[in-house]
C-alpha cells in the first residue's frame, strides 16, 4: 500500500483528505465522528471573537440531470457558537486524535490587536495550524472582513503579517475566487509570511428565483442576498486557480486544494496540478463522512497501479503541462473517428457539428440509407464537440493525424515573423 500521509507546510496528516471549514466542522462532536470515519484533518468552522447571528433559511442546491447538488449556494456566516465552547472542543479532539490535523479557521476584524489576541488564545488550545478566512463572500464581507480583505492584496499582506508575528504554528491563507487573478492575492499572502495558501472559498452567486412567489432562492422572510457557490460545478474554476498558483514563481508555497472535490479522481487531479492536499465540504454535506472510505481506497489503488510509493510522488506532476495558450503546438491536429459498430444512430454528433461546429459529419454514400455517419477529416478541426455530445462511451474518439508540419507555437511563429 502506498504512503498516503502528507505534510502541508509542516502540518502532518495520515491522508490528504481534510474537511473544509464549513457545517461539517461546526463542533467537536462532528469532527470526532469524522476522524473516527478516517478523515486526515479538519479545518474548524470559522471562529471569531465577536458572535454572529445566522439566518434561516441558508442553502440552495442546483439540480442538474438527476444530481440534486451539482452546485450549492449558501448565505451562512461563520461559526455562531461561543469561541470558548469551540476551543474546549478543539482541545478534546486533539487529545483523542493527536495524529490528525486540526486547523483553526479565523476571521477577525482587520485590526492588529484583535487578530493577535485571538491567535494567541486559539493556539493555546493546541491547533496544528491556522487558516485565515479571507474568502467568505457574503455577510462578513459587507462588514469589512472575509472577501473584503481577500480582494485587496495589500490587506491580505497586512492581515497575514499580523498573524505571522505571533503564530507559533503554520499559517494558511484561504483565498477568494471572487477576483480577476488569484495570483495577486496569493503573492500578497506569501509576502505577508503565510506558510501555505488554500483555495477556493465560495463564488458569488444567486441560485434562482421561485416562479410562484418571485422570491430569490434561498429566501429569508421573502428576501434574498447573494451567496457563495460551491460543489462539483466549481471544480474547474478551483483547479485552474490551484494550477495557476502552482506554476507562479511568486507563490512559492504549498497549496491546499478546495472546490468540488467529491471523488478520489477529483483529489488526484488537484494533487497533479500542484495541491499538497485537498479539502472537502459539499460532498460531505451531500453524502456524509463515510465517503472518506472511497476516497482513501481509490487513491491508494491508483497510486499502487501507477507504481507510486506515496502521495508526494503525485503532487505537481502535471503543473509543467499547464502552459500559456501561446505555447501550444499549432501544428498538432486530431480528428473525430466514429466507431460504426458502437454507433446507435442518434444523430447527436451530426446535429452538433452541423449547427455548432464545422459541418464535417455527413451521411455515408454507401447505401446504408443515410444511417451511417462519417467524418470528413479534411474539414474536421478536432474541436471535440461530437465526442462530447455522443451518448455512447468510446464511440467517437479523437485521433491524432500527421499534418506534416513541424511543431510550432504562436510564440515561436511570432518571433520568426515579427
Ligand atoms: C454552508 C457552507 C458554509 C461554509 N462556511 C465556511 C466558513 O465558515 N469558513 C470558510 O472558510 N469556508 C466556508 N465555506 C466554504 C467551504 O469551506 C469551501 O471553501 C467551499 O464550499 C468549496 O468546497 P466544496 O466545493 O467542497 O464545497 C462554507 C461552505 C458552505 C457550503
Name its key features.
single chain, 418 residues, alpha/beta, TIM Barrel, Alpha-Beta Plaits, 2 domains, four-stranded antiparallel sheet, 13 helices, globular, binds flavin mononucleotide
In terms of topology, how is this protein built?
Elements (H helix, E strand, L loop, with lengths): L5 E3 L2 E3 L3 E3 L8 H10 L3 E7 L11 E6 L2 E8 L8 H14 L4 E6 L5 H12 L5 E5 L13 H4 L2 H14 L4 E4 L7 H10 L4 E4 L3 E3 L2 E2 L6 E2 L9 E4 L4 H12 L8 E4 L5 H9 L2 E6 L1 H6 L3 H15 L27 E6 L9 H9 L4 E3 L9 E3 L9 H5 L6 E6 L8 H8 L1
Parallel strand pairs: 3-4, 3-16, 4-7, 7-8, 8-9, 9-10, 10-15, 15-16
Antiparallel strand pairs: 1-2, 5-6, 6-14, 11-14, 12-13, 17-20, 18-19
Helix pairs in contact: 1-2, 3-5, 5-6, 8-10
The structure holds flavin mononucleotide.
Flavin mononucleotide binds next to strand 4, strand 6 and helix 9.
What does this structure look like?
The structure is a single chain. With 418 residues, the protein is α/β, with parallel strands linked by helices. It folds into two domains: 6-321, Aldolase class I (TIM Barrel); 325-417, Alpha-Beta Plaits (2-Layer Sandwich), CATH 3.30.70. 31% of the residues lie in helices and 21% in strands. The protein contains 13 helices and 20 strands. It has helices at 28-37, 83-96, 112-123, 147-150, 153-166, 182-191, 235-246, 264-272, 282-287, 291-305, 348-356, 385-389, 410-417; strands spanning 6-8, 11-13, 17-19, 41-47, 59-64, 67-74, 101-106, 129-133, 171-174, 196-199, 203-205, 208-209, 216-217, 227-230, 255-258, 275-280, 333-338, 361-363, 373-375, 396-401. Strands 3-4-7-8-9-10-15-16 form an eight-stranded parallel barrel, surrounded by eight helices. The protein has a four-stranded antiparallel sheet with strand order 5-6-14-11, with no helix packed on it. Helix 8 (264-272) links the parallel strand 15 and strand 16 (275-280). The longest helix has 15 residues, at 291-305. The radius of gyration is 24 Å and the shape is globular. Flavin mononucleotide binds next to strand 4, strand 6 and helix 9.
Amino acid at each position: 500500500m502506498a504512503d498516503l500521509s502528507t505534510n502541508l507546510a509542516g502540518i502532518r496528516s495520515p491522508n490528504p483528505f481534510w474537511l473544509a471549514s464549513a457545517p461539517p466542522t461546526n463542533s467537536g462532536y462532528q469532527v470526532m465522528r469524522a476522524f473516527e470515519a478516517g478523515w486526515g484533518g479538519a479545518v474548524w468552522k470559522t471562529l471569531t471573537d465577536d458572535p454572529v447571528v445566522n439566518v434561516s433559511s441558508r442553502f440552495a442546491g442546483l439540480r442538474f440531470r438527476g444530481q440534486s447538488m451539482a452546485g450549492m449556494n449558501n448565505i451562512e456566516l461563520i461559526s455562531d457558537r461561543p469561541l470558548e465552547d469551540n476551543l474546549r472542543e478543539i482541545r478534546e479532539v486533539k487529545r483523542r486524535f493527536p495524529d490528525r490535523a486540526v486547523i483553526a479557521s479565523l476571521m477577525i476584524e482587520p485590526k492588529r490587536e484583535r487578530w493577535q489576541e485571538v491567535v494567541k488564545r486559539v493556539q493555546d488550545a493546541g491547533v496544528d495550524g491556522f487558516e485565515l478566512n479571507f474568502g467568505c463572500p457574503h455577510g462578513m464581507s459587507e462588514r469589512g472582513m472575509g472577501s473584503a480583505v481577500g480582494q485587496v492584496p495589500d490587506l491580505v499582506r497586512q492581515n497575514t503579517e499580523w498573524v505571522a508575528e505571533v503564530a507559533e504554528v503554520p499559517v494558511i491563507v484561504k483565498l477568494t475566487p471572487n477576483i480577476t487573478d488569484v495570483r495577486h492575492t496569493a503573492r500578497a499572502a506569501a509576502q505577508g509570511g503565510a506558510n501555505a495558501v488554500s483555495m477556493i472559498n465560495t463564488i458569488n452567486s444567486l441560485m434562482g428565483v421561485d416562479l410562484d412567489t418571485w422570491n430569490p432562492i434561498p429566501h429569508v422572510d421573502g428576501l434574498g442576498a447573494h451567496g457563495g457557490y460551491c460543489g462539483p460545478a466549481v471544480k474547474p474554476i478551483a483547479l485552474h486557480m490551484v494550477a495557476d498558483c502552482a506554476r507562479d514563481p511568486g507563490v512559492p508555497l504549498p497549496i491546499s486544494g478546495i472546490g468540488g472535490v467529491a471523488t478520489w479522481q477529483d483529489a488526484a487531479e488537484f494533487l497533479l496540478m500542484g495541491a499538497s492536499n485537498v479539502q472537502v465540504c459539499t460532498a460531505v454535506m451531500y453524502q456524509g463522512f463515510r465517503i472518506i472510505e472511497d476516497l482513501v481506497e481509490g487513491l491508494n489503488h491508483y497510486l499502487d497501479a501507477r507504481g507510486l510509493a506515496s502521495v508526494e510522488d503525485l503532487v505537481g506532476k502535471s503543473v509543467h503541462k499547464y502552459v500559456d495558450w501561446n505555447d501550444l503546438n499549432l501544428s498538432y491536429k486530431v480528428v473525430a473517428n466514429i466507431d460504426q459498430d458502437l454507433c446507435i444512430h442518434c444523430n447527436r454528433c451530426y446535429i452538433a457539428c452541423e449547427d455548432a461546429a464545422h459541418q464535417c459529419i455527413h451521411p455515408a454514400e454507401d447505401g446504408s440509407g443515410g444511417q451511417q455517419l462519417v467524418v470528413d477529416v479534411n474539414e474536421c478541426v478536432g474541436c471535440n464537440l461530437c465526442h462530447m455530445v455522443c451518448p455512447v462511451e468510446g464511440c467517437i474518439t479523437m485521433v491524432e493525424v500527421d499534418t506534416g508540419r513541424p511543431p510550432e507555437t504562436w510564440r515561436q511563429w511570432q518571433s520568426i515573423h515579427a
